[in-house]
Amino acid sequence: MKRSLWLLMLFLLAGHVPAASADSACEGRFVNPITDICWSCIFPLSLGSIKVSQGKVPDTANPSMPVQICPAPPPLFRRIGLAIGYWEPMALTDVTRSPGCMVNLGFSLPAFGKTAQGTAKKDEKQVNGAFCHVHWYKYPLTYWLNIITSLGCLEGGDLDIAYLSEIDPTWTDSSLTTILNPEAVIFANPIAQGACAADAIASAFNMPLDVLFWCAGSQGSMYPFNGR
């Protein structure tokens, strides 16, 4: 019952939340769970190592046995479930230059004001530069719609804002970022960045290379973990 009420609220918000915001630099709208999701992208579908349905996107390695032991909340801690493999829409991400602009929710949070206002510019050396904020939402849509029942291993939950870069002090301070993620220094060189070309090619034709974890395919480097 709770899941049905939550899904009904999503549809109502998707149809009635306006795209306009009090901040003129903030553009967005509430995500429609039916029309804005690439539902064909959840395939291929597998049960253990058995391919149940083909898809247009590559598949990762699957467990050999369909029955698995999954984490569970206390006091159980472990439970038996089916290993159903598919690409699950379970999170949303905002990238914005306007502090507090909740792009995927269609409104702006005025409490942040102009704190760490994002920019896009070129310096005297004609080098591109930008500063953006990031928001991450929990969005277990498959669970809400009850499309796939995994008998224990499906991730559930409600819509939740899990991360706001505006309240993260390391997002605007490169020194703090380096203290928490010192490994970023290792990848701040032409050799490490040049290796990302291999990850970009692998991502374009199949899957990214796990060994090049500091690369994000054709989108560049994962480091540093801040807005710059």
Describe this protein's structure:
- With 228 residues, the protein is α+β, with helices and mostly antiparallel strands.
- The protein has two domains: 2-167, no CATH class; 168-228, no CATH class.
- The protein is 18% helix and 20% strand.
- The protein is built from five helices and twelve strands.
- 16% of the residues are buried.
Which descriptors would you attach to this protein?
globular, 228 residues, IncF plasmid conjugative transfer protein TraD, 18% helix, alpha+beta, three-stranded antiparallel β-sheet, single chain, 2 domains
Structural class by SSE content: alpha+beta
Stretches with pLDDT under 50, minimum 5 residues: 15-22
Q: What is the H/E order?
A: HEEEEEEEEEEEHEHHH
Radius of gyration, in Å, reads 21 Å
Number of domains: 2
Signal peptide: 1-22
Protein name: IncF plasmid conjugative transfer protein TraD
Keywords: Signal
Pfam families: TraU
